[in-house]
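Researcher: I'd like a structural prediction for the single chain below. Treat it as a standalone chain; there are no partners to consider.
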Amino acid sequence: RSTLFPYTTLFRSRCNFSNILSESSIIFEIDNLLLNQSYLSFDQNNIKNVSIDLYGDYFLSATSSNMVSFSNNYFTKLSGKGAVLSTSLSKFLLIRGNTLENNLATSFYRGETDINNSTLIENNVGTNIGALTTFIKINIILNQGYINLRNNIFQNLSIVSDPSAYRPLNFISIDTEAAANLNGTPNVEISG
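Model: Treating it as a single chain, here is the predicted structure.
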C-alpha cells in the first residue's frame, strides 16, 4: 500500500529494458484496468538505449486505469517522437523521483482524462533532453482536484519544432474544459 494511494497494488513493474529498436508505438503498456481500490505502479525501472520512430509513441503507458504511479525510474538515451510517460483516463496520477538523461526527440509526460481527482508531478530530474513535442502536456475535461508540479529540475532542455508537424510547442501545457469549485484553493500549482 502507498501513503498517497491507500489502495491495493494491482500491478508493479521493476524491469530493465535496454538496447531496443521498436517498430511498435509503445514499449510497455497496461490497458483497461478500471478497478476500484487498485492502482498501477511503474516503479524502479531502468530503461536505456531504446528507440521508437513513430509519432505519438510512449515508453511507459497506462490506459483506462483509476490510479497510476511512475516513481523512481531511470530513463537514459531514449529516442522517439513522443513521450516517455503516458496516461489516458486515469483519475489519480503520481510522477515522482524519475531521472531522464541524454534523451533525443522525446518529451516527458502526456496525459488525457475525462475526470482528474489528483495529479502530482514532483522531484523529477532531467538533463540533456531534446523534445519535438510539448514537454509536459495534460488535457482534462473536468478537473475535480488538483494538479501540482513541484520541485522538478530540467536542465539543458530544448524543444524544437519538427518541420513536418504544424502545432504549437510549449514547455508545459495544461488544458481543462471545466473545473470544480474547490473553496478558493487553486486547481493548478507550479512551484520550484
